[in-house]
Write the structure tokens for this entry.
Amino acid sequence: MEQKFVQYALILLFAFLAQLIDGGLSMGYGVSLTTLLLSIGVGTATASMSVHISEIFTTFTAGISHFKLGNFDKKIFTYLAIPGVIGGGIGAFAAVHFQNVTLIKSFVSGILLILGILIIIKFIEKKDILEKEYKTPRRIHLLPLGFIAAFVDAFGGGGWGPITTPSLVVTNAHPKKVIGSVSAAEFLVTLSISATFLFTLQTIPWEIIIPMIIGGMLASPLAALIIKKASQRVVGISVGCLIILLSLRTLLNELGIGFFF
């Protein structure tokens, strides 16, 4: 009993920290919590479903918080969410029937590593720029990006934030509005992924999910506030650093080299 209590407390704490990062930089929650669950013996399919169901609640809280604080762009949200719902559902269905995602993970991680480096260079070279100098992403860019990111997120166990955020920030979109809009759109994407998992896997491990929901929802408003107060340059460089860290982790793990998280 005591061991289970410690385990649930650890999940809650880790969810709080993961959502603090994810809510602030729109990436890291799924990867971090999936890694933790796998390390304590939870099966792959159960871990993925648990994380996505908990994200229904955490992404809703994060999206509302960002919207209220002005970290939001309606166009980015709409044209990421619509194809994202479709891509997420298809990706979750494929995840249940196909197990080998190694090549996809490695390919995506290699691209993200390059994007992370480019983002850091971009924001180191520039000081904070004026609001009018930021560009609004085009619909032709947002639609396929939303579909691909959601598909990879469901099929590969993570990727919505790491794919969408750097892809938009590197094109000179407003980093704060990108993060807020990506976080808000993730709610609908996660809803689609979770519904598909529920129809195909059916068993729901609430004893794992509830601590993640509590920890994530507590962290979401704080993360949104941090982003509201931080400078665009700090946010941009932070996004780049986290992208590089997550990409290196995946690539090294695929090569059989241990990583620290």
About this structure: Residues 175-201 form the longest helix (27 residues). The CA atoms of residues 89 and 195 lie 8 Å apart.
